[in-house]
């Protein structure tokens, strides 16, 4: 990921938690409840004074608590975390008193974690959204793939998974020997262009401020802590994907994705079709950084063609969208490919003839 050092304004903290409460909705009921309680609690908000403004504050706090519980911290609060107990049965009653007591008891650790760790949600099922888009961009050509904000690089290994698109009826696609099956549901009137064979990746590289080593237990624990504790199946997918990552080494460069994107993309062999992708990363980059990234890829396109796949949730009124930007000779043409679920539960492929393409000239 990329990040910033300036902390979030204390006045903005309650609004951030209330907004995130609306975001999680019914998918994480406990987090929904805790968001609304944290928003009105000065003691807990005070623990977050050093969280960088670029970081989603609620995610970082909840991940810090989850991280400590996954590490063996003893507390009755653990009973409300199926990912910790292994049980889908949680205690009755309000988890808030237990949550607040835990945060105050572990205040130094939580202050440190929330100030130094970043949100790097490795939701591997997003590969099921990206795979049809990569197939669209590559059009059967062998590819070089660069992922920005790669974290552990799980989506960089998208060709090592099996895929099942509900209702398609064509059987599984992808690596038939893979221990990881990713299921998703196509919605709407158009089917995603699901290839019979996954695209041929010949070269790949990731970039992240703080790469996660799949062989590092602490890094894997942080990645697990970022998942929502009521969604045990996501944790199971993560652990299986981390096992695949340990068996399939990938180069992940440590550094700022905006600064290093074009430089690393230029390293890709010239005979391969170059694709740069990122998912749920731009929310941690300011407007200037986004413009710099766009311009850097446009400049690179004067030397070689670049396709950019962006799966981001930048506007609350439209939800997460999957877009493709084709950079050619300094110009960028963007099409919206699909609306997607943020954790990969469904994909709705869109008619690209409606309102697309959008063409801009970049110098």
Describe the structure.
The protein has 363 residues and is of the alpha/beta class. The chain folds into two domains: 10-116, no CATH class; 124-361, Rossmann fold. The protein has twelve helices and twelve strands. Strands 1, 2, 3, 4, 5, 6, 7, 8, 9, 10, 11 and 12 form a twelve-stranded mixed sheet that branches. Helix 4 packs across helix 7 and helix 4 packs across helix 9 (217-225). The two termini are 26 Å apart.
At the third CATH level, what is the topology name of the largest domain?
A: Rossmann fold
Mean pLDDT: 91
Alpha-beta content class: alpha/beta
Backbone shape: globular
Number-wise, the strands total 12
CATH architecture of the largest domain: 3-Layer(aba) Sandwich
> Helicity range of the residues?
25-40%
Give a brief rundown of this model.
The chain has 12 helices and 12 strands. It is α/β, with parallel strands linked by helices and about 375 residues long.
Attribute tags:
363 residues, alpha/beta, Rossmann fold, 2 domains, twelve-stranded mixed β-sheet, 12 helices, 12 strands, 34% helix, 19% strand, disordered C terminus
């Amino acid at each position: 990921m990329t990040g910033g050092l300036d902390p979030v304004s204390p006045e903005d903290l309650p609004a951030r938690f209330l907004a995130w409460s609306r975001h999680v909705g019914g998918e994480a009921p406990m987090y929904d409840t805790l968001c609304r309680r944290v928003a009105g609690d000065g003691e807990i908000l005070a623990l977050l004074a050093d969280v960088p403004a670029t970081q989603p504050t609620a995610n970082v706090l909840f991940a810090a608590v989850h991280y400590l519980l996954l590490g063996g911290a003893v507390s009755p609060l653990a009973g409300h975390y199926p990912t910790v107990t292994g049980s889908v049965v949680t205690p009755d009653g309000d988890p808030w008193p237990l949550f607040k007591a835990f945060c105050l008891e572990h205040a130094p650790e939580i202050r440190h974690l929330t100030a130094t760790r970043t949100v790097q949600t490795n939701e591997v099922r997003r590969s099921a959204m990206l795979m049809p888009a990569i197939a669209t961009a590559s059009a059967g050509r062998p590819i070089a793939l660069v992922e920005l904000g790669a974290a552990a690089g799980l989506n960089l290994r998208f060709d090592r998974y099996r895929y099942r698109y509900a209702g398609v009826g064509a059987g599984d696609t992808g690596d038939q020997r893979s221990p990881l099956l990713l299921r998703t549901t196509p919605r709407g009137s158009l089917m995603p262009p699901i290839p019979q064979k996954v695209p041929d990746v010949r070269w790949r590289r990731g970039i992240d401020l703080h790469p996660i080593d799949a062989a590092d237990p602490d890094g894997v624990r942080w990645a697990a802590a970022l998942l929502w504790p009521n969604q045990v199946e996501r944790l199971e997918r993560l652990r299986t994907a981390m096992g695949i990552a340990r068996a399939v080494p990938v180069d992940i460069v440590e550094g700022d994705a905006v600064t290093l994107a074009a430089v690393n993309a230029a390293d890709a062999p010239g005979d391969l079709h170059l694709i740069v992708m990122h998912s749920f990363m731009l929310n941690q980059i300011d407007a200037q950084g986004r413009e710099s990234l766009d311009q850097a890829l446009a400049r690179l396109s004067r030397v070689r063609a670049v396709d950019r796949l962006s799966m981001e949730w930048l506007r609350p009124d439209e939800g997460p969208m999957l877009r493709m930007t084709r950079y050619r000779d300094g110009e960028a043409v963007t099409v919206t490919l699909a609306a997607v679920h943020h954790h990969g539960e469904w994909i709705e492929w869109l008619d690209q003839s409606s309102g697309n393409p959008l063409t801009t000239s970049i110098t």
